[in-house]
Amino acid sequence: MSFNRLIEEKIKNVISSWNENDIYAISFLVHSDELSSYKGITNFPEFSVGYNTESECDGSSELSEERWNYAFWLQNNETIISSEKSDMADDLLKWYSENGIVDIGVESEEQMYDSEFNYIGKGPNGLIELLNLVSDVARKLQLEGYIKERFGHIPIIVHDLEYSWFIAEATKNANPYGEADTFLKAFDNGFED
Questions:
Q1: Engineering a disulfide at 186: which of 32, 68, 77, 178 sits with its beta carbon 3.0 to 4.6 angstroms away?
Q2: pLDDT value at position 59?
Q3: How far apart are CA 122 and CA 185, in angstroms?
């Protein structure tokens, strides 16, 4: 089984356990944990899946930070890849190797910031590649109607903890029918109404 397919199956297993009837958005959180180490690789990437509900938003406006910033969400994500899940960590390392991705967890300081100290990096090596893979899996779930069948026309937000500049592109890719348009508008507005 391909790594993409393996991740898709793990995601579906998590999603199939959800019973709430007011889920309005799904979180695909991809980030590196500076305190995490696996087989000598520090800053090992993590991927988890969760959701937020209308009842958790408590009537917040359509473009509000409370609705779209993960920091305000339920924090119910279930981990799919991490240094503590050795089977998936091994599969991720194999996928990196097959795709020529090296120096996992390393980030070049020269490429992190522009001349005005704006972050322009793509995170530690391996992070953006995993984020793009996850975005492609999300896109497949949307294109095949898996998400719509379960929850209706809702977005999959592909993000890190900081909502870095590359999040918008990953989320656009993941939602080919415009499911994330409201999130992207809120993101562009800095989560301000």
A1: 68
A2: 82
A3: 22
The sign of the CA dihedral 142, 101, 165, 10 is positive
Mean pLDDT is lowest, of 66-70, 88-92, 108-112, 126-130, for: 108-112
Residue 11 has pLDDT above 90, yes or no: yes
Question: Residues 180, 182, 187, 191: is their CA dihedral positive or negative?
Answer: negative
Contact 156, 174 (CB under 8 A): yes
CA dist 16 and 165 (Å) reads 31
Residue for token pair 């959800």: 18
126-129-135 Cα angle (round to 5):
140
Place of tokens 């020269």: 110
Q: Which residues partner with 46 through β-bridges?
A: 31
Helix (H) or strand (E) holding 134: helix 127-143
What tokens were used for 8?
């898709």
CB 36 within 8 A of CB 42: yes
CA atoms of 124 and 95, how far apart (whole Å): 16
pTM here is 0.92
Task: Say how many residues make up the chain.
Answer: 193
State the DSSP code for 70: G
Cβ(140)–Cβ(119) under 8 Å? no
For 106-117, what is the mean pLDDT? 62
State pLDDT tens for residues 139-173.
Answer: 999 999 999 999 999 999 999 998 888 899 999 99
